[in-house]
């Protein structure tokens, strides 16, 4: 029998609306291939996906409802699967600017995926400045769970300019089960896993009635005086529209390492401190109060080990949601960093937190899947009093390639939660740190201002390390002098 959607998958399908499409995206920018004269075009991308899609069979499956809808739907092969429907072509008027690309991304991410087909799309965008091109991908949160299915962006990239060999794909769609077979599967599942089937049935009925235990819990939270006051005071809580605004920030990873070396903590702590500084400056441009107790509640998913004694060997490592109060009311950038480090230290002290080095060392790792997992966790756990979702995923510090074309940049697009005006996705890759800022188009017309505030916040933290960098530089000169004297 086909796989059945989990209750969490059904939650994502139910949470989706015209104002809150539930897909995760990535914007990757490439240069033409370094080898060969053919370049990279739409046919190249279609051929690449056709070669690699066998590694993610769910990308050729659609959602099939159960007759009567008294049990959860199942994944079935799409008998009419058409790869050219999912892999699309677009272009900017040459020479296409980065701003034009961002506008296109915002419009693509505003549209929901077609539920009658496999829940993903990919776009080749040609015409960028410097003969570059972009690949925009989006996958529904119900599609990628990190175990049975990884994000398609993970399988199309190679660690060398020479594409790896893949076996011949002989896939033929299985005939979808009949109504009788679907019902028989429900009874069989009820015998083997009665609790799971009851939970799925509850989730399916909830999707029809519009009432769930999760929603009731959220309603209780919203009904509290504290929650109401927090939401009213935060400009990040908005009535979400159906349109998006997207922008990016590119920074150097070495800057974060310098700040970490001077003040302690981790690179992740520094990134959160930079975002906190960005929020503080942005709120001030809006004339909002940033008193000493003002904070932004950020949902920050983290990856942990199931077994404390083992390093992760696959992306099946658990991802949990943690809440970090970003101290935007603190005037000192160093104190903001220390306060954030103190909060995140709780997760490190458990011994279960997965280090960035361990994640990047996972065979076949690419950031896209972990961003999808982080978004899944955030969607399932976010509360009305939470202000923003921040996913930060470490990527490999060496170039990746798509059919020989080197990837220059990778920006994540994290979906907006209901009632939230902004989400922040961060990926470190090949010596850079890339921010993808996804915002409600109506609520945040000044998204570019926030992006500049993030850059300024990083510079502000860097300024605090000048003394440390000078001392380190003098120390290196002293060491070199000592070495020279010893060798003479």
UniProtKB/TrEMBL annotation:
Annotated O-acyltransferase WSD1-like N-terminal domain residues: 5-271
Keywords: Acyltransferase, Glycerol metabolism, Lipid biosynthesis, Lipid metabolism, Transferase
Comp. bias intervals (Basic residues): 468-479
InterPro entries for this protein: Acyl_transf_WS/DGAT, O-acyltransferase_WSD1-like, O-acyltransferase_WSD1_C, O-acyltransferase_WSD1_N
GO function terms (MF aspect): diacylglycerol O-acyltransferase activity
Annotated metabolic or biological route of this protein: Lipid metabolism; Glycerolipid metabolism; triacylglycerol biosynthesis
Catalytic activity annotation: an acyl-CoA + a 1,2-diacyl-sn-glycerol = a triacyl-sn-glycerol + CoA
Enzyme class: transferase
Coiled-coil stretches: none
GO cellular-component term (any): plasma membrane
Domain O-acyltransferase WSD1 C-terminal: start-end pairs: 317-461
Biological process (GO), any one: response to hypoxia
Disordered: region residues: 465-488
EC number, UniProt record: 2.3.1.20
Similarity section: Belongs to the long-chain O-acyltransferase family.
Protein name: Diacylglycerol O-acyltransferase
Organism: Kribbella shirazensis
């Amino acid at each position: 029998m086909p796989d059945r959607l989990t209750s969490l998958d059904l939650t994502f399908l139910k949470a989706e609306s015209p104002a809150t499409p539930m897909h995760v995206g990535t914007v990757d920018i490439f240069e033409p291939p370094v080898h060969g004269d053919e370049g990279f075009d739409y046919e190249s991308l279609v051929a690449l996906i056709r070669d690699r899609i066998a590694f993610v069979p769910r990308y050729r499956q659609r959602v099939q409802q159960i007759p009567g809808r008294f049990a959860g739907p199942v994944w079935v092969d799409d008998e009419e699967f058409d790869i050219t429907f999912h892999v699309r072509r677009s272009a900017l008027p040459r020479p296409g600017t980065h701003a034009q690309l961002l506008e296109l991304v915002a419009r693509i991410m505003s549209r929901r995926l077609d539920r009658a087909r496999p829940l993903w799309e990919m776009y080749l965008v040609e015409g960028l400045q410097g003969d570059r091109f972009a690949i925009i991908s989006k996958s529904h949160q119900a599609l990628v769970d990190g175990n049975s299915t990884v994000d398609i962006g993970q399988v199309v990239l190679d660690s060398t300019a020479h594409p790896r060999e893949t076996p011949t794909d002989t896939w033929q769609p299985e005939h979808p089960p009949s109504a009788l077979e679907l019902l028989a599967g429900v009874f069989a599942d009820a015998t083997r896993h009665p609790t799971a089937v009851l939970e799925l049935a509850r989730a399916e009925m909830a999707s029809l009635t519009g009432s769930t235990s999760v929603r009731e819990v959220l309603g209780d939270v919203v009904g509290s005086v504290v929650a109401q006051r927090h939401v009213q005071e935060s400009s990040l809580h908005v009535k979400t529209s159906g349109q998006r605004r997207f922008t990016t920030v590119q920074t150097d990873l070495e800057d974060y390492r310098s700040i970490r070396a001077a003040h302690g903590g981790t690179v992740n702590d520094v990134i959160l401190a930079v975002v906190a500084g960005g929020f503080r400056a942005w709120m001030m441009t809006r004339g909002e109060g940033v008193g000493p107790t003002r904070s932004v509640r950020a949902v920050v998913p983290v990856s942990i080990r199931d077994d404390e004694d083992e390093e992760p060997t696959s992306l099946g490592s658990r991802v949990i949601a943690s809440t970090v109060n970003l101290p935007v009311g603190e005037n000192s950038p160093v104190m903001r960093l220390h306060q954030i480090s103190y909060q995140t230290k709780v997760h490190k002290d458990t011994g279960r937190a997965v280090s960035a080095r361990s994640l990047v060392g996972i065979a076949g790792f690419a950031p896209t899947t972990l961003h999808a997992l982080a978004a899944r966790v955030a969607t399932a756990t976010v509360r009305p009093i939470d202000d923003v979702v921040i996913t930060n995923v470490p990527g490999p510090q060496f170039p990746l390639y798509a059919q020989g074309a080197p990837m220059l940049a990778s920006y994540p697009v994290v979906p907006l939660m209901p009632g939230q005006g902004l989400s922040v996705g961060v990926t470190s890759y090949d010596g850079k740190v890339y921010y993808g800022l996804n915002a409600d188009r109506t609520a945040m017309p000044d998204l570019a201002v926030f992006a500049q505030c993030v850059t300024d916040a990083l510079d502000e933290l860097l300024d605090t390390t000048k003394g440390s960098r000078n001392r380190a530089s003098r120390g290196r000169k002293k060491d070199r002098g000592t070495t020279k004297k010893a060798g003479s």
